[in-house]
Amino acid sequence: MRLIKALTLCLLIGLAVAAPRHNHKERKESKESKESKESKESKESKESKESSESDHITITKDFFPDEFAVYTADHDIVNILVPINSFNFEDDDEDNDTNDDDGITLFFVEADIDKAGNRIDKGLYVLKDGKAKKLLDNGRDAAASSDDSKDVFFAAKDGIYVYNKNDSTAIKYGSVTDSVIGIAKENSTDLIYILTENYDLYKITESGNKKEKVNEVVGAREIVLDGANNLYYYGDDLKPFVFNGGVVKEIKGLPEHPKTVRLLKPPFFIDDSVPFITDNDIYFINANGTSEKTDFDFKSNAKPTAFSMEATLLQYYGYNKKIYEYNVLAMILTEVIDELKEFLETKSDAIRSLSTQSRSRVRTSK
Known about the structure:
The chain is of the alpha+beta class and 366 residues long. It contains seven helices and 25 strands. It has one domain: TolB, C-terminal domain (Neuraminidase, 6 Propeller). The strands form six sheets. Strands 1-22-21-20-19 form a five-stranded mixed beta sheet. It has a four-stranded antiparallel beta sheet with strand order 2-25-24-23. The longest helix is centred in the first third of the chain and has 19 residues, at 37-55.
């Protein structure tokens, strides 16, 4: 039962990490008014210990059962994007010009990793209805805003591409010819950030034809935007920073000298933070320069190679050359509910809130 509960906790990472933010812990009051003080203290101490142990989740290989795999690749899955703009999800109050029977479309990148940790491009793909199609031989990353647009952009060795949904192809976007390794799209503007192979950061505007170097950001290795358009990055020393309004802030409160780090795209409802993996621990790093450790960590042999939790209730992870799908609502509606009743009751309000928000029209079945 603990494995299933832990798995659901992992799937609800967007919900569970809210607990450390607000630092709330619910305590059960005794129903027996005649209970002695000593007995109550002993019971509360035991419950507190059990709660603390159950709240901390270590992700193991058991979190990746074969039945959750939706795609098997020939190479490592190193990036996954589920667009949460109107490409996949229409707002409830808008005219829906897409077919509601359409399944979720996601994009992913395959690569081989050499002994030095460098990626060898093996293609950028689109995956829909279990079928994958290669779009670019040298695609490295994908980005989409979380607003009402329907565009999906790709970083490639020879510049920027945009997805053509009509014939499922990638077409050149603008005049950029740099070798791009990272890309991020702002909400509610036309601005795109690109990170080049030389670790230079640029702002791209005017339909991809204007390129402006961001001199304040030096030596970035990876970039991610949060919902409020704050840009997070880390350099060769693996220390993370946040950039906005021309100001760079170093993130404080993290372990020193990590061996590996990774920035993740955040759940759609989080505006001022992003998940950050340092070695095997998961933190949230915030736009104000602070950080918060979550209740999750990984076994070294169970760390995903790619993450997509943007949609929150429908998440995808790359592990062992496979893409795994975790549909939270579908799990809740099955027999899992019986084993998770107590946990889900404490999260029910948050789950209902998420399921009715405009960006979370996630299908519970295919």
